[in-house]
User: Which sequence fits this backbone?
């Protein structure tokens, strides 16, 4: 680990970012070039003190997970991320389709959707970034580990995952998920995370195994979805997808027809969601800035 060069690199990347690049207000009294340290800390979901010590440089040896969070927070390209890992004393992460690094261009789009129910998900159904409204609608997906990080896996192993969808819609949702996994499995092959999820579900879910034998084919069309939220009731939302060129990630945005009942309920959820995410009434840390 090269502490001095790591600190210098973090500082230069921080100063190269403008508040507008990450969806933050500039304010009138900003004298710091680029972002402030506390803003980077929030974007990377770490304490201000921890980040400050990394820049000074007198901090601990950051883990690979911490460096990955910094790469996302600082909107680094894959090449910049690799350089960050080398400075931290680690081998560069694999650039495979199962990478958890979010494309900076995708993050910039999410930054402009702070008031929408939007999230970036991997081709395995792993949520990588959520807006606050998406957390209020679907729940916070950041706390899962292992195979359970994949909502596709949880759909067939955790009944609570299905509650957000009306019962009549669940069989079709099962078919869509199996089709998505089928495409990922064929693309990634044996030994991949897709293969691990498929093998686990074939062994544990008769429903999954039956649908898998039908060889369903995924569609890029998202269409209208219905969600049964415990706080605001039934919402009918239009789904739009922006798929990354390498097919490893997609930005999914849910909107409601203006003037509809669902539109009003989605607006209500944005208020109710803030109260649920921040019950103490203080400033809550956003899932994405």
Assistant:
């Amino acid at each position: 680990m090269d502490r001095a060069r790591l600190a210098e690199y973090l500082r230069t990347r921080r100063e190269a970012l403008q508040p507008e690049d990450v969806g933050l207000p500039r304010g009138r009294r900003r004298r710091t070039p680029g972002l402030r340290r506390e803003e980077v800390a929030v974007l990377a979901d770490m304490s201000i003190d921890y980040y400050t010590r990394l820049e000074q440089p007198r901090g601990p040896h950051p883990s690979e997970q911490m460096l990955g969070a910094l790469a996302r927070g600082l909107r680094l390209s894959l090449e910049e991320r690799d350089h960050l890992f080398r400075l931290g004393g680690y081998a560069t992460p694999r650039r495979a389709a199962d990478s958890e690094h979010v494309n900076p261009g995708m993050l910039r789009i999410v930054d402009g959707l702070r008031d929408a129910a939007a999230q970036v998900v991997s081709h395995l159904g792993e949520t990588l970034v959520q807006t606050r409204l998406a957390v209020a609608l679907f729940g916070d997906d950041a706390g899962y580990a292992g195979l359970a990080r994949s909502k596709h896996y949880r759909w067939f192993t955790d009944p609570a995952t299905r509650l957000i969808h009306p019962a009549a819609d669940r069989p079709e949702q099962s078919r869509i998920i199996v089709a998505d996994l089928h495409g990922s499995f064929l693309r990634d092959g044996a030994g991949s995370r897709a293969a691990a999820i498929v093998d686990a579900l074939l062994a544990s879910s008769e429903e999954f195994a039956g649908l898998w034998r039908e060889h369903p084919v995924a569609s890029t069309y998202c269409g209208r979805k219905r969600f049964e939220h415990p706080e605001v009731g039934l919402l009918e939302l239009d789904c739009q997808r922006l798929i990354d060129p390498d097919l490893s990630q997609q930005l999914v945005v849910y909107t409601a027809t203006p003037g509809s009942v669902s539109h009003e309920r989605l607006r209500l959820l944005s208020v109710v969601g803030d109260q649920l995410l921040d019950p103490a009434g203080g400033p809550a840390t956003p899932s994405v800035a």
Notes: DSSP finds twelve helices and five strands in the chain.
